[in-house]
Amino acid sequence: MRSIKLGMLASVMALATGAAHAGEIAVIVKTTSSNFWQNVNRGAEAAIGAQSDHTFTFDGPATESAVADQVNMVENAINRGVSGIVLAPSDPSALAPSVKRAFESGIPVVIIDSALAEEAAGTYQAFLSTDNCAAGEAVAQRMIEEAGTEGKVAVMSYVAGVGSEIGRVGCFSDYLAANSELEIVGPLYSQSQMALALNQTTDILAANPDLVGIFGANEPTAVGMGRALVQAGKAGSVVALGFDGNEDLQQFVRDGVLEATAVQGSFAMGEMGVNTVIDIMNGEEVESFINTGVVLVDQENIDSDEAQNVLY
Q1: Which compartments does it reside in (predicted)?
Q2: CATH topology of domain 132-264
Q3: Could you tell me the pTM of the whole model?
């Protein structure tokens, strides 16, 4: 089936204006206001710098919840006739029509980080992501190892319904349910806003003084969670696990505020995403799913090469 889809794309591209061998690649992420996505940008820059046929643009809304803005960015890229698109969709359904339109316009699309809705199957050529379910399970396993099998664990999530959130938080929760008696409080959704996560965590800590653990499921959420733990005097007394690896989260690990943080290959998403769309434009076969990996970073391994290659 995948080879048929690629063949359809090649046929459409042959009719499209603009050569498949040169032109702009539009990298459109969930927001430009996060260090995680800026690291994706650096990866894309590295891929572009290694060749001379293509340029790229990097764009994204002010916040991850500004889905309509992201839709407009994809539509604008299609309208100006870009050669390829690398997209991290903020909403699995809202972006599907635009991706379909790109396909019909002969523009290959590579999805990164979060999956599109099932209705979009066949309209993009590859999906590059952390295996978010496996990552969520790894964090849950670490939670049980550190916090035990009984008590309350708060889940501080980000945007409900996003593909990465469904896998990451859903599999975290499912693993705890299947392997412990831990009771989940939440999830609460920060809309990927650090200040909101801080306030939500402050409220959760006050309402549940018997918490044994807490999980912040993406960068701004985990940063807000960590700051709330410090302000409440709970740092080190609650097993806190984060996700992503900016400087704030690295310092929380070093200081013992976080037991560990799960760090995705954000640089790899940008670099591999751009290289994959170039491969498609060159008529090469690509895998339909490419795992960009995750590393659980703690005090013991934070200075290792494995951790330093994913931290940002």
Answers
A1: Cell envelope
A2: Rossmann fold (3.40.50)
A3: 0.80
